[in-house]
Every structure is written in C-alpha cells, then in structure tokens.
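pinging the channel bc i need a second pair of eyes. not urgent but kinda urgent?? the chain im working w is below, pasted from the shared doc
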Amino acid sequence: MPWSHLPALLTTAFLPLAHWLQKRSAARLPRRLVGLLFAQGRRTVTSWCRAGGIADDYRPAYATVGAVGRQAPPRAVSARCAVAPLLPGPRLRLAIAATPPPRYGPEVEGAGIHPNPSPGPAGAKHVSGHVWVPLAALASHPEWDSVALPVPAQLDIRQADRDDLPPHRRRPFRTQPEIAAEQLAWAKTWIGRRFGELGARVDGAYAKRPFLRPARQLGGTVVSRLRQDAALGSVPVPVAPERRGPGRPPT
C-alpha cells in the first residue's frame, strides 16, 4: 500500500512518522498504521496485521513495529508534528493519566500488581501488568467533542519491581508525578507561533507538589480533582467583636 493510496489527511499524519525509519521499514509502515486504526478486539500487533490484510509477511511487520519502538524519542517529535494541525489554538490542551494494561506471564519485564481502575463484572481490585503514563493532546471533534491524541508515553516501574529487571536494563526510579512533569516540560517546546498557552487536565493522583511545582514554573495551567486524602473546610464566618467569646478566633 503506497502513500498515494491513502487519504490526504492520513498521508500528512503518517509521513513524519516514517521519516526516521530505514527505507524498507518506512515502506511497510502505511499498512501497519491502517491496521492499527481499524483493528478490533485486543490491541495487539497480530490484530493490526489482521486488520491491515497482512498474512504472509507478518514477520517483517513485527520487525517494523520493533524499529518504530527503537526510535521512541524521534517518533514522539514526529507524532507531535503529525497531530499539531488537528489541534485548535491558542491554548494547547493536554491530558495526563496513568493507564495499566493487563500483562501476565513470568517473562514480562516491569510488570507488577496495581490498583484496577476498571474492575468489571469480576470486581478485581488489582491487576497485573504495566503502568504507562501517556501524554495526550486534546483535539475538538464536531461529533465526538474532545478526542485524546496520545503522543509520548513512558513506562512507570514501581520501586518494588525494579529488582526483578535484568542488571543491564535497570533504570532510575521516578514517580508518576515526576514522569508527568518531564512530559509537560517536553510539551513546552510546542509553545511558539501556533500555541500561546499551556493547559493540562490530570487525575487527582497528580495533584501533588512534584508535578504542580514544575507546572507552575513552566507557566502552565493545571485542572485536577482534589486528592482522595484532601482535607476540606469551609471559610469561617467573621464574628462581631461584641459577640465573640473567650479564646482565639478561628483561622
């Protein structure tokens, strides 16, 4: 499937992603991306191949996916260029929230036991798998309102699970708010002629100092719900001096 067979919008979005790949991998990329768009069921490489009509050359398809994964930092820059024309200005609206996809098996690196955000009918409180911290740009759709366009995503590995990693693949420990702060600093590079303001919508888990302080230094606006352990209190009503009793007035 050459690029000329795709709609103009998809060609404009896919070409920057193939720029960083070797020519053979770049030629295979269109069908893989089309399969990613139309795949149903579990989001796996096999389902992408099935939706893209890939049968005999499924092995090169896996090699292409691996080549894209090895080019993660340039790919994030290319994805930024691909989704930027779809975003309204002048404020760049971003969303950050942890996503734990289930992963099972003894050979799955970096997986651990995490709280299950969607228990389902079984009501399982925990899920085994990875936790990704994706940064998504929020675009406006005429029928679906806001649509999240994920750009980069970083893997969060708990401190308790780092000892299970191979010695040659150890990585420094960072909390989810610290990872989100790094992504927000990376998104600051978007601010230029097209965008003048930076706004982030985050979950209550990020309403903490390690994330809020860097966001304030970057000049961004953060919208979040309160933390679950937040203590709320009403503003005390002023009491007239003649009616005030003994003791210190409330603060």
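so The chain has two domains: 1-72, 87-228. and The longest strand covers residues 145-156. — does that match what u expected or am i reading it wrong
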